[in-house]
Amino acid sequence: MNKIFNKLFWVMAVCGLTMTACSDDIDWNPGAAADGQGVFFPSSQSSSITLTETSGSFEVSVFRTVSSGASTTQITVTPGENAAGIFTVPTEVSFADGVTEAKITVTYQNMKRDVPYTLTLSAVDGTPYGITDLTISAICPLVWEVVSTNATLIDNMFEAFGAAGVKLTGITVEKHPELNKYRFKSPYDNSYFNSCLA
To answer: How far apart are CA 112 and CA 82, in angstroms?
Structure first.
């Protein structure tokens, strides 16, 4: 019994010493404050924009870490390889006294449909703690003309499995606005496979 007590004592002593070696105190030192206005783009700002018209405008949010005093800071603009002459962007953004958010209005013109364009905005008086370079990818999708919503397809894809002559109706057919091309919405959804199994 004495041996068990002795061993238990040493186990408890080792555990006690181990626990005293741990510390809950974490030495934390804050990072250095950013110089200047600390301008940045918010993480909520979308970097992918889908536009409906080939000419128009959209807004980009800009923030700063300093709220006191009115300020104007520079924004550098770098258009993508095929975006020269497409976008017009102000080269500076102004903040009113006490305000930490401002908007930049980006105008665009003569975009080609279905062609992606990129544009990079950089805050000159930025902060190392935020997004100071924002690359926007913009596209204006092609608008297809609906020529029918009641096309019919006779399908024999699964004829080898006994599903021949499956008739599908209510298919939407669209035409390319400039070329003699057509496309239709895929009829292969759950209702199609259910009809094959019926």
So the answer is: 10
Residues 152 and 187 in one domain: yes
Residue 6 covered by a domain: no
- Domains in the chain: how many in total? 2
The pairing of strands 166-175 and 56-64 is unpaired
| Residue 27: burial class (beta carbons within 10 Å; 0-12, 13-18, 19+) | exposed
Domain residue limits at 91: 39-139
pLDDT (tens digit per residue) in 67-95: 888 999 999 999 999 999 999 999 999 99
Element (H, E) at 119: strand 117-123
The residue ranges of the chain whose pLDDT is under 70 are 1-3, 5-9, 13-26, 28, 30-35, 156-163, 189-198
**If you ran DSSP here, which 8-state letter would residue 30 be given?**
P
* Residue 70 vs residues 64, 67, 73, 100, 114: alpha-carbon distances, Å: 11, 8, 10, 10, 41
Give the pLDDT confidence score for residue 22 in this predicted structure. Answer: 57
**Closest of 65, 60, 59 to residue 39, by C-alpha:** 65
- φ and ψ at residue 72, rounded to 5 degrees: -130, 130
21-25: list long-range contacts, CB under 8 Å, 24+ apart: none
